Each structure stands twice: as structure tokens, then as C-alpha cells.
Amino acid sequence: MIPNYCLKCGHELETRNISNVDRRACPACDFVFWGDYSIGVGAIVIKDDKILLVRRAQEPGRGRFTLPGGYIEQFEPIEETVIREVKEETGVIAKVSSVVALRDQPRAVHNIYVVFAMDYVSGDVLPDNEEVDQAGFYSLEDMTSMNVADLTRWLVHIAYSKTRSGLQPDPAPIVPLQGYGLYRV
Ligand SMILES: [Zn+2]
What is the pTM of this model? Predict the structure, then answer.
């Protein structure tokens, strides 16, 4: 969505060429509309060689099985988002192991989806019956007869590939960088 009015002061926006790109900008304050972006997170939680999947109860993707996940909040560290979403949707407590995949989707709302490998900690699987109406740990064989989203199939393949590398959280960066979530090879 491209706004017609300033999100800061409400003045009508004008089109301004900034570094060779036409942007919507406010003539009354310093607001510039740089674009519309969203960031989603997904979790690969494996237990006894089975992967935690949820069945979406809402659009988009209603009726399809996907990884548990959701969208980041403005001031919430991404690691907390993925832990929270897994717990909310499935009741499972899991902790972040690494970042294993990223999907970029440039469109009207440019979306980036970051996928974490997570270690199961505790909890019985219990769908929230709001965002998801079914949840469980499923094997590859189980999935053959399930309506699994294509992107999820790609991620399941990654989950079962034996390379266990990925970006790891850096608890002790060589430079103190306050307020950052840092992941590295
Ligand atoms: Zn303004």
C-alpha cells in the first residue's frame, strides 16, 4: 500500500525524486515513505525424527500444514518472536539453535521469512484452535498424505538434510553491540 497522507503529521504527500527513485514524501515534515515491508519467522522443531507442523485455521493458507511461526513485532527480538509463536500455536517450548533458511518475496508488502532450527525443550502439543486447528510431530511418511504447503516441503527437505550448519547466535561478539540480535557462520 502506498500512502497518500503523511504517517507522521497527516499532510498530503508529494512525489519526490530521491537518489533517482520516485518516493512519496511529506512537504510539511521529514517523513519519506521508503516502502512496505514485513518479516515472518518459522520454526523447525524436530523430536524423534519428526517435525512439528501446524494446520492453518485462517487465510492465507487455510487448511494447509506449515511450520509454526508468525510475524515479528516492532520492538521484539526475533529470537523471542519465534519462541513465542511456537508456544502460542502449539504449546511446545523450544529454544533457538540456528538460522537455516531465508525466503525473500518482493511484492506490494515486501516479505522476508526467516527460518530457525530449534531444539525441543518440553510441552505436549496442543493447537491454539485460533490460528491453527491441528498440530503435531509428523514424519516424512505422514506428510505424504497431508496437505503440506510447498514452501514447507522445501523447508522439511532442508530439515532432514544432514548438514547441520547455519547461522548461530553469537553470545559473545568481539565488539559489544548492544540491542542487536547477532547470528553468524
Ligand atoms: Zn508530515
Answer: 0.91
Report yes or no: 32 and 9 within 8 Å, Cβ to Cβ: no
Specify the amino acid at residue 177.
Answer: L
- 26 and 115 in a single domain? The answer is no
Name the percent of the chain lying above pLDDT 90.
95
Ligand 1: centre distance to CA 33 (Å): 10
Distance 35 CA to ligand 1 centre (A): 16
Angle at Cα 22 formed by Cα 18 and Cα 23, nearest 5°?
A: 80
Q: How many CB atoms lie within 10 A of CB 135?
A: 22
Question: Could you tell me the residue range of the domain that residue 4 belongs to?
Answer: 1-35
Question: Residue 86: what are its φ and ψ, rounded to 5°?
Answer: -60, -45
- 91 with 105, same domain? yes
1 Cα to the center of ligand 1, angstroms: 17
Q: pLDDT tens-digit profile of 34-87?
A: 999 999 999 999 999 999 999 999 998 999 999 999 999 999 999 999 999 999
30 and 46 fall within a common domain: no
121 and 77, same domain (yes or no):
yes
* Closest to 128 (Cα-Cα) out of 78, 85, 94, 73: 85
Distance between CA atoms of residues 51 and 125, nearest Å: 12
Whether 77 is in a domain gets the answer yes
